[in-house]
Write a structure and sequence with these properties.
The protein contains twelve helices and 16 strands. By secondary structure, the chain is an alpha/beta fold. The protein starts with 6 loop residues before the first helix and ends with a strand. It binds pyridoxal-5'-phosphate.
């Protein structure tokens, strides 16, 4: 288990004053190297989009820029933000419940692709496109909630495919949807292909099985209608294992499998849109131990901040991996320092709720007030999914290193 911070993060965490904590520390060089390696593992016919909802900090988006083919945005807010932060990059607009105002804004921005979620949305898009962008043919991928065989989705932490959800079109509507294009009902729109994002947390062999099923299904749909689909987007959801920070998604095996899939379908552009597996590892949440206390036989370290800044462990029900950096120098206060007597400590935050736990029963010997704690894997679905205003504690600092 390697939750240890990189050198630059470690030095920064130790160099900040107590009042400057908690802080999010992002290692942008590590992110750059990681995404470059992901890109290098993928065959050329595979386009890499970043799902901005995982972490939309402008510095993160910019660092990803040279390595990605575009960004997937899922709201009008993300659309405006990403279009500004990384102007000129290709955008795909997905997500359920797009409003007419959001679609209009996307059309005005010249968004390259719409991932359409329902027949209603398809007709809304066509109608708005005729008004807002009458001289363009707007690119569409139909998002389907495909039922895949249970074996390929087993083990995923967030399976969305094949059971009732608000995401995507029901596959039973696939022929109706495609017919609207082939019978000329939607002259404003150009059917580019199919999109499916069916599960989160799949390892490379399962991701490949899912990608293969999506492509096979899409090609059969195209064949039934005598058309060619240029693109298939097989989604994101590459696994990130919070219980084992050293275990990484096998991008090399995934890339080789996608290369075989591309070879079997010449001329097809495949696209993936990971979020978590690209940015989770580049972010750390650094804080200090405020107090160490015993309660009914267990020891707790209360840290500055908590799950209102880093909701990931509460949201996913895991222990956030962390490293203790013992405070350097003498204890600066006139009152005695609290310290742990046991060798396992539960890290809790400052909120008045028992749910504010960052990591349980962590093996840390001799933990003392004033020690620094750096929580790893806080670069995705961390700050931006947290309930910042609960209890009105100060916001963390943000440092892009
Ligand atoms: C959230 C999401 C992604 C990214 O998922 P990760 O698990 O972060 O890789 C990709 N596509 C769609 C449609 C999503 O909703």
């Amino acid at each position: 288990m390697t939750a240890a911070p990189t050198t630059v993060v470690r030095e920064h965490a130790l160099g900040l004053a107590a009042e400057e904590l908690p802080a999010y520390l992002y290692d942008l060089s590590a992110l750059d190297a990681h995404v470059a390696a992901v890109r290098a593992a993928l065959p050329r016919q595979v386009e890499l989009h970043y799902a901005a909802k995982a972490n939309p900090e402008p510095e993160i988006l910019t660092t990803l820029g040279p390595h990605v083919d575009g960004y997937e945005v899922s709201s009008g807010g993300e659309l405006a933000h990403v279009a500004k932060a990384v102007a000129g990059h290709s955008l795909a607009f997905g997500g359920p419940g797009k409003t007419p105002e959001e679609i209009t804004a996307a059309l005005e921005l010249g968004v390259a692709r719409f991932h359409v979620e329902s027949l209603y949305e398809l007709r809304m898009l066509a109608s708005l496109a005729a008004r807002v962008a009458p001289h363009t043919r707007v690119g569409v991928l139909l998002r389907f909630n495909l039922g895949l065989d249970a074996a390929s989705l087993a083990g995923s932490s967030l399976a969305m495919g094949g059971r009732p959800t608000p995401f995507g079109l029901d596959p039973v509507d696939a022929d109706t949807a495609v017919s609207l294009f082939t019978d000329g009902s939607l002259p404003q729109l150009h059917l580019l292909g199919v999109h499916a994002h069916l599960a989160s947390g799949l390892d490379a062999p399962r991701q490949l099985a899912v990608a293969d099923s999506i492509v096979t299904w899409s090609q059969a749909l195209a064949a039934r209608h005598g058309i060619r689909l240029a693109e298939v987007n097989v989604g994101g959801g590459m696994s990130v294992d919070y219980a084992d920070p050293g275990a990484r998604f096998d991008w090399a095996a995934y890339g080789e499998g996608l290369a075989r899939l591309c070879a079997a379908h010449p001329g097809l552009t495949l696209r993936i849109e990971p979020g978590r597996a690209l940015t989770a590892y580049c972010g750390w949440y650094a804080t200090e131990v405020l107090d160490v206390k015993r309660n009914h036989g267990e020891e707790f370290a209360v840290v500055r901040g908590g799950t209102h800044h880093l909701r990931t462990p509460a949201a996913k029900g895991h222990d956030q991996p962390c490293t203790v950096l013992p405070a350097a120098g003498p204890w600066p206060h006139p009152w005695p320092r609290s310290e742990a007597r046991q060798d396992r400590v539960t890290f809790a935050g400052q909120l008045c709720t028992p749910k504010d736990v960052l990591a349980r029963q962590v093996p840390v010997r001799g933990l003392r007030a004033g020690d620094r704690v750096v929580f790893a894997m806080a670069g995705a679905y961390a700050w931006n999914i947290s309930h910042h205003d609960f209890l009105m504690h100060p916001r963390p600092g943000f440092h892009f290193l």
